[in-house]
Each structure stands twice: as structure tokens, then as C-alpha cells.
TrEMBL record:
It comes from the Bacteria. Residues 1-22 form the signal peptide. Residues 28-114 form the Blue (type 1) copper domain. It comes from Solirubrobacter ginsenosidimutans. Keywords: Copper, Metal-binding, Signal. GO terms for molecular function: copper ion binding; electron transfer activity. One of its GO terms (biological process) is carbohydrate metabolic process. InterPro entries: BlueCu_1, Cupredoxin, Ig-like_fold. This is Plastocyanin/azurin family copper-binding protein.
Length: 239
């Protein structure tokens, strides 16, 4: 009888000691060109979600280099947008994963540390001086301009072409005004690579390290006011 009671106790303890439920950590982007949480620590099986609510500039989230812990991480890249749609990734393996917004790669960088053991995460850096209030700041009446026309014109995206170049492809295009142009390489329904190019006029971008095969290339330009061009699609074969 004593052994039986111990067995029941062990079963009950096992039920109580089941693994904790997976969680989702949220990282928010801002037009100050920083992430609100550039460094997060999670456990295997947890998810990180990047959100862009309230932003009026083109942003996205993408892997900033490969990770030995997860080969699939290298191809993670969410669509550009104003505001961009939320993006998420579930991390199964322990390791350190670097991410960034490729449009603002000088300041919008961060890391996700995946570990079964607790990890101390450094506090985020203070906002830039331009975003910090001064002691003598006081509300002031701001005159409201009327009759100012809003920019609703879509940027023109023309002369689009793509040709094989080495183990990749060169994409050429023209944009009529200052914009961020998103370039997406897809195979079937799978998004393989996403790039962002800033500027206007005649531009080009060399996509490198593509596997051999046929790709659909989609381009969309987003101007400073958030107006989106008509999507342009073409095909290219990499050998």
C-alpha cells in the first residue's frame, strides 16, 4: 500500500511539473528608427512578434544573417509596408538570432536569445536627444495651415527588368520620386528573399546567393507619404 501511494504521488507531481505554455514576446517599431525592445530573451518554442502600428515610414523585420541553430532563420523577412503588417517567428532551437529593418539598418537592429536557462537582457538605450523633452519645453499654440494639398500621388515604377548575374540576378528599375522600393524573390507561393532599395531615378540591385531555379520578382515602391506604386512582376531564371 505504501508503494502504491508513492506511485500516485509521483504521477500527481509529474502532472504539476508539465512544461510551461509557450509565450509571445512583442517588439514594436517606431518612426524614431528604433525598436522598443531591441534585445529579448525567450525559451525554446516561444514566438516573437514584430508590430508597426502607427508608423508612417516603410519598415519591416528580417533576419540579419544566418544562425547555426536554425537554418530557416536566414530566409525570414516580412513585407515592407506603411504601416507594415505584423510579422512573427517561432524559435525552436537555443541560440542567438540577429534581426533588423533593412531600410534602417544603422539603428533598427536587435537580437533574440533563445535559452532554457534565464538570460539577463540589457535595458534598451535611451531615445535620441531629438526625441527627449527638454526641461523648458512648454506647450505652445501651433498655427494650423489650411488649404494645404496632401501628397496622394503614387510613385511611378517603370523600366523594370531582371537578368541573371552570376549566382544571382540584377534588377533594374526607375522611380519617379524618393521612395523605398521593396524587391521580393518568390518560388511558387514561398517568399525566398526580400530586399529594400532607397532612392529615385534609375536604380539597380544585385541579389546574390540565389539557388538555381525560376523566380518571380515583385517590386513595389513606397514614397515618403506612404503612397504605394502599382506592383510590377517579372520572371528570372538563375542557373
Amino acid at each position: 500500500m505504501r508503494l502504491r501511494v508513492c506511485g500516485i504521488a509521483l504521477v500527481a507531481f509529474g502532472a504539476l511539473a508539465s512544461p510551461a505554455a509557450a509565450t509571445t514576446e512583442v517588439i514594436k517599431a517606431s518612426d524614431a528608427l528604433v525598436w522598443d525592445r531591441p534585445n529579448v530573451a525567450i525559451a525554446p518554442g516561444d514566438t516573437v512578434e514584430w508590430t508597426f502600428d502607427g508608423t508612417v515610414q516603410a519598415h519591416h523585420a528580417a533576419a540579419n544573417g544566418a544562425s547555426d541553430a536554425d537554418a530557416a532563420w536566414a530566409s525570414f523577412s516580412s513585407p515592407l509596408g506603411v504601416p507594415a503588417p505584423p510579422a512573427s517567428y517561432t524559435f525552436q532551437n537555443e541560440g542567438v538570432y540577429n534581426f533588423y529593418c533593412s531600410v534602417h539598418k544603422d539603428t533598427m537592429t536587435g537580437t533574440v536569445t533563445v535559452s532554457k536557462a534565464p538570460v539577463e537582457v540589457p535595458a534598451p538605450p535611451p531615445p535620441p536627444l531629438s526625441a527627449q523633452p527638454l526641461a523648458n519645453d512648454a506647450p505652445a499654440d501651433v498655427p494650423v495651415e489650411t488649404g494645404v494639398a496632401l501628397d496622394t500621388a503614387k510613385p511611378g515604377l517603370t523600366a523594370v527588368s531582371a537578368k541573371r548575374r552570376g549566382t544571382g540576378a540584377r534588377v533594374k528599375f526607375k522611380v519617379t520620386e524618393e521612395s523605398v522600393t521593396g524587391i521580393v524573390f518568390s518560388r511558387g507561393t514561398k517568399r525566398v528573399k526580400t530586399y529594400a532599395v532607397s532612392g529615385h531615378g534609375a536604380l539597380y540591385f544585385d541579389a546574390k546567393g540565389l539557388r538555381a531555379g525560376k523566380y518571380t520578382v515583385t517590386l513595389v515602391a513606397v514614397d515618403l507619404a506612404g503612397n504605394r506604386s502599382k506592383a510590377r512582376k517579372l520572371r528570372v531564371t538563375v542557373r
